[in-house]
């Protein structure tokens, strides 16, 4: 795009802003300063005056009762009440259960729980899956061993049965259990290596000077702060330098309350402001007795939170959305822009622009009138493309004094009493969000599901979407407390901050390095930003925020302070307040026990995703629902996927998206992707080129940005268009490979994107690496993550043990030394991808959409290992059905110079097999032989070329017209004097003279 013209337009708009000052002031003056009010607190971890919980007396165990799968015991407080950050609970119950060979459960909860306090301590199994035992594992058959002592107070440790390796130990520390505070401390080995605890924006290796805070918040991608989701699971890897082996294990702490994990030099401290201790220790041991990170992660998914959903095939295409698609015409232009640039586009999305006054389930009848909009969506469907809109988690509360402000979705829910309530009045809780004062559904009420389904189905009748994007599900509120209580007559109100597109809201920030590549534009942006800031300061369009100061509260016997608990979490919201940016903790639900948001806050995202999943099942019976949610919890992957939230157009944000992705692979949410090119601020051609290339190897691939910034569709710059075309060519070739990875994630808990440390666990140097990653077991991706360079450094793991690597584009073998940083050429339009020797990849000729790709011929890429062998697999089904009527798994094997397939299942894919490419053959074959099923094929009809240690075989369509994998295939190569016997086919004596033009990696 013409950057200079864009700046001219923005500067021109700034003049218009100044002319609209009075209008802006009138709009925003209706806001009360209370909306910005927030208490100022000091996080406990930063408060030197805070009590030391380890000074508490701890507990003594007694009344041990053994059972077949473990034991129970009483825990009684061992001294005077401590009341560090709550009221001590004197009597606890301990349960130790050997649930399965690799899994041990340790639970501690109050011995006497009144029904009205049940959810205060016990997380219900119907909300969050609770692992149960197999009924046959005992202490003697478990991978894990539990030991405990009462000297001086109750302490325990968990170790491996086979080796005695200590995995978790509270020895030397006391257990603290209060009504608003629980603490457990474990000793850690020196230089421990722990990963996970999603969601965080942090290095992949968490380190030993880090605090992970869990409290779902609408705060953008704050580095090292709490963000949208809570997955209290970590995996630890230990490297044994003496024998070169590693061990791995995991821990899942099933608790949804606000919590913190304090990773320090030799300890990890687990603190939570409520709930119980419900720990699941995972041995990470497989059937061979060895333990690994991959097996630990699989055990977490299979046994603890549930396996992730299998996505529809089309969802792996490229998605485009922007907050700022003002009308149908603009969206038509976007779709056409991609088509004209020949950049594949699978699905178009709408952000808030679609709505009437930002209200869910509505269409702006001026900009998105139902008839024309439905016709446009139908045109997308006719072209094999899809449409997804946003649904926010708040429901606008209409103005009771304005009859024309009727809003049926709110009215239907209110009539059934389905909203969370304000505890001070008993009325509904009225927070603030995009449309104004709003309410939130109470997902503890079964009737909420029927209401939600009705609203989604009714809206689909006007807007025929193919999936749902769930936003603000933390749940986010823009004010403090029930700020709309008694003020609904002011609705609709403007949010308490400038919106993108409002006066004074233009975004002039650009990525690092922009001043070098675009010096003139950078100077213009700086000047415009200064001018806008000066104008905004003079106009003061927003009320000046007021704050109240409140220090850490003291525990009061018989009282729980929900809004200001005695333990202050290190949350990122201003004042570190739990009231800021969310429904207040003391808001109540309508269940029999009036459960509060203090217990339920971190579960709202899980619940609304589950509800939306069920609604889409009703709307599309038998079809896999496609939802993308912002706030997630352990187990969310069963019903939703996730995007990385409101990131920024910066190189650092792109870099950290890899770590964020890997932690979600661990968390059982493989359908993950970042807002490509960045959401907030302006991108530029260099950052967007590199990011479009990187995201092509993330499972969920979407470009999204805010409307106050410049447009960033991939066709806007010729350089980005070329980079996108090239990267998508690779991605769409590999769609079946990626889909197969998801099949194994869905059925076995395998990971899709993979850390190098998972695939090469004995290499200590890879422990913290995430500048490179694997896609499945076979592809190594080495992206450029810094500006103004045309090379990138990368390592090639395993070469010291004989692992071979091939350049995807040339299929040339890489020459690298162990742990060597190899400098790779990386011009702007290129991302380095390498194929691991020993891999067989099913490919398909890429088309403009996933449907076009699926109709194109297949290819097979064989990359031989040092022994001349390779293997791989392919999963096929209809790509849509929740329970497919037919499936097929094709297993590939290359050994003894022959490629063979085995087939299980009856699913029919009609596209033929066009080519087979074998990389790593050191001399050209003299014979080829082919059989398809029982058919002995005339090999002389094949076209065979040998070049640079690679054999290219084409012309297989004539033998596979009924479908590439309807029958088994055997393709053999031979040499005189090497025991060639034709392998049962009609051998073709080949002199190597055939030529078939130039070749692209993978045969396309």
From TrEMBL:
Keywords: Glycoprotein, Glycosidase, Hydrolase, Signal. GO terms for biological process: carbohydrate metabolic process. Residues 308-741 form the Glycoside hydrolase family 31 TIM barrel domain. One of its GO terms (molecular function) is alpha-1,4-glucosidase activity. Residues 749-841 form the Glycosyl hydrolase family 31 C-terminal domain. It comes from the Eukaryota. Residues 1-19 form the signal peptide. Residues 536-560, 984-1004 are annotated as: Disordered. Its EC number is 3.2.1.20. It is an enzyme of class 3 (hydrolase). Residues 536-557 have a biased composition (Low complexity). InterPro entries: Gal_mutarotase_sf_dom, GH, Glyco_hydro_31_C, Glyco_hydro_31_CS, Glyco_hydro_31_TIM, Glyco_hydro_b. It catalyses: Hydrolysis of terminal, non-reducing (1->4)-linked alpha-D-glucose residues with release of alpha-D-glucose. Gene3D superfamilies: Glycosidases (3.20.20.80), glycosyl hydrolase (family 31) (2.60.40.1760), Golgi alpha-mannosidase II (2.60.40.1180). Belongs to the glycosyl hydrolase 31 family. This is alpha-glucosidase. It comes from Cryoendolithus antarcticus.
